[in-house]
Amino acid sequence: MWKKWNGIVGMILSASVIFAGCGVSNNQQEGSSLSDNQILRLSDTGELTTLDSTQAKDVPTMSVLNNVQEGLMRLGKEKKPEEGMATSYDISEDKKVYTFYLHEDAKWSDGKPVTAYDFEYGWKRALDPKTKSEYAYILFPIKNAARFNSGQASADEVGVKAKDDRTLVVTLEKPTLNFINMTTHVEYLPQRKDIVEKYKENYGLKPEYMVYNGPFVVSSWTQQKVELVKNEKYLDKNAVSLTKVDIHIIKDVAQGINLYNSNQLDTALLNQAFVDAFKQTPDYLEVKEASTVFIMLNQKHPFFRNEKIRKAITLALDREEMVQIMKDGSLPAGALIPPTLSGEGINSFRVNGEIVKPDVAKAKELFKQGLSELNLSAPPNNVVMVSYDSTAKRDVAVNIKDQLRKKLGWDIKLDAPTWKIHVDRLSRGDYDMGMLTWTADYDDPISHFEIWQSNNPMNFSGFKNAKYDQLIEQAKNTTDAKQQFKILLEAEKILTDVQGEGQAGFVPLFYASKAYIQKPKVKDLYRHATGASYTLKWAYIVKDKK
């Protein structure tokens, strides 16, 4: 989604789970070394904005919700969805009807049972056009969900029905390969109708206006810190060791590192200025994200409608220089889909490697041909690239400017506005070139592909290709994973490649990672490539060897 631009949101099921430390699982804790103080202090760069799952649209908020609420399924330790509130589920022969069976002992934090009716209510509330949920489309595989969201159907026509307290029947529009993965997204969380109606417009704005069914509850919430405490009513409370989690909101990386070094934080984010200082220590941790950073070329601009100009830009850039600037484990990108996302079966989508690689000589040749076709003796000197205002990616933008000047003799201008202005300009098409990041919400490459379809509202560049559109629709409609992978590979080449039918519709830069420092005493804090940033359910703290 567009709220995922810039890796904010961050947010599809994790294709890769990275755990901190090398300790044992939470069910096999080192009894004698388990610390008496099970309080975890971590930091995030963004504030919690709401506890209403229908309004969540950023990664920090989704991360909190992932730990205080629980859906039918949740992301498990082994990169796959596992049962949450559901004990099991059945799938019909035509793969269009899913029947979920809920735990009899599942309770909300106020002691009332979690029922199938809570899921039916929560999902339909997310779809209700009055709710104005930006992530409602995640629910669109459900029968009549899109029509209800657009005011063309009633709530009763949506394919979500509570058969009784413990049975939820979900009917899809068509078979959907990754529907179970989708149910781990926060948009699929249950909600209590009585609580929502009691607090109305204030629902989700204060911890006391909520009930929780996840491993933790929010005990305190300010702009500076969110405090979580263990939920004693949680269904699987025996798996939870942490008694408290303090999430400090720290936007300045240096401040976070200072707090970490003074033992006031157990984990903190790094940027390129600090990676070298920690990279060889046992505290260093890299997390590969399901994110691709790229340049969009506004094809309403005559210069970028020229295919040879687009291809020249793609071929001119050396991505190795960019990842050396990032220093956080990011990888050079020569395609759309990051290696953390699955292709066929458990294999990475990038099993066949990258599509494009730098070729400066070819870039110069194509650039010259493109200028000739446009009747230009020299490239335009008024092209502006909207870039990031954060240090590392801002430095990458400077590197791109320098590479284009040296290799193509083309001097572009840079603009690094605030993130809000950045997104607004690109969404309105008020740009020439624009750096963006797209992050998957669950383990499915489709969400990376569909934003380039002609009629997709997220297609800010105006890229259009009829065959590409057709291939993506075919991929969405197949239930054969092998066939879908084959179709998507063909579509990716059309979008990315500089040969054959390739259109070079965008310029891939790098597959993003994040670098952290984390105390070795913190065990089984699972960090995710997609969706919510982390899961605290299994985390625990051993006695500090010091």
TrEMBL record:
<feature type="signal peptide">
    <location>
        <begin position="1"/>
        <end position="20"/>
    </location>
</feature>
<dbReference type="InterPro" id="IPR030678">
    <property type="entry name" value="Peptide/Ni-bd"/>
</dbReference>
<keyword id="KW-0732">Signal</keyword>
<protein>
    <submittedName>
        <fullName>Oligopeptide transport system substrate-binding protein</fullName>
    </submittedName>
</protein>
<dbReference type="InterPro" id="IPR000914">
    <property type="entry name" value="SBP_5_dom"/>
</dbReference>
<feature type="domain" description="Solute-binding protein family 5">
    <location>
        <begin position="80"/>
        <end position="459"/>
    </location>
</feature>
<comment type="similarity">
    <text>Belongs to the bacterial solute-binding protein 5 family.</text>
</comment>
<dbReference type="InterPro" id="IPR039424">
    <property type="entry name" value="SBP_5"/>
</dbReference>
<keyword id="KW-0813">Transport</keyword>
<dbReference type="Pfam" id="PF00496">
    <property type="entry name" value="SBP_bac_5"/>
</dbReference>
